[in-house]
Every structure is written in C-alpha cells, then in structure tokens.
Design brief:
The chain has one domain: START domain (Alpha-D-Glucose-1,6-Bisphosphate, Chain A, domain 4, 2-Layer Sandwich). Helix content is 20%, strand content 52%. The chain has one helix and six strands; from the N terminus they run ββββββα. It has one helix spanning 93-117, and strands at residues 4-11, 19-25, 31-42, 46-54, 60-73, 76-88.
Length: 122
C-alpha cells in the first residue's frame, strides 16, 4: 500500500494567506495532519505554498516552501516543482524523507490523472 492523501481537506479561498489543511496517510498507515499556507498565487503561472506537519504539541516537525511553476507549451504544460526546507526540527528526518516520497507519489498520481483525461474533453 502506498502513501495517499485522505479525503479530509479544508481550503480557504484567499489566494495569498489562504490555508489548506489535510490528512496524509503514510505507507505504514500512520495519519499525519498537514497544513499549507498560500504565499503567492499568480495564475496560471506560479503557486507558492509553505507546508508543515505539526507534532502532537502543535510545533512543526519541519517547514518547507513549495514553488510550482507552470509554462504553456501549446499542447503540453511544462512544470517545475522546487522544494526548499525552511526549518527542520529534531526528529524531522523521517518526515522529510516521507515528504520526498509523497511528492513523487503526488506527481505520479497527477501524471496518471492527466493521461486518463486525454481525449475526454476533446
């Protein structure tokens, strides 16, 4: 069983300063509360989020900045995802490693979804 985002999600609709909270389930079945704040939204080119996973006391294990850049290439869209660790607290190592796996899974899921949509709206 791979990691998966759970259905619980809360999105606040403000472009900058908006909040996205969700639960994430690790391959081991452990659920993590996650939180991301929108720092920059420049449709359709750029999205910047700062994300964290809090420990049981609410202190983040780590804080990461995710920058997603999109470029229209005619029939395709170019995408660059940049992830920077802004803060890493003691004990964050397994969570950061899990985040790497999570990004890979998310991008694989996106690719699979986009492939399934080819020709659907054409």
């Amino acid at each position: 069983m791979g990691a998966e985002a759970l259905r619980h999600a809360l999105l606040q609709g403000r472009p900058e300063g908006g909040l996205w909270t969700y639960k994430f389930r690790s391959p081991e079945g452990i659920e993590h509360d996650c939180r991301a704040v929108y720092r920059e939204v420049d449709p359709p080119r750029k999205l910047v989020l700062e994300g964290s996973v809090p420990d049981p006391q609410g202190k983040p294990f780590f804080v990461i900045r995710q920058t997603l850049l999109l470029e229209d290439k005619g029939e395709e869209t170019g995408m660059v995802l940049e992830v920077n660790v802004l803060q890493a607290n003691p004990g964050s190592e397994p969570y950061l490693e899990g985040a790497k796996q999570g990004f890979g899974l998310t991008l694989s899921n996106l690719e699979e979804y986009l492939q399934s949509q080819k020709g659907v709206n054409g």
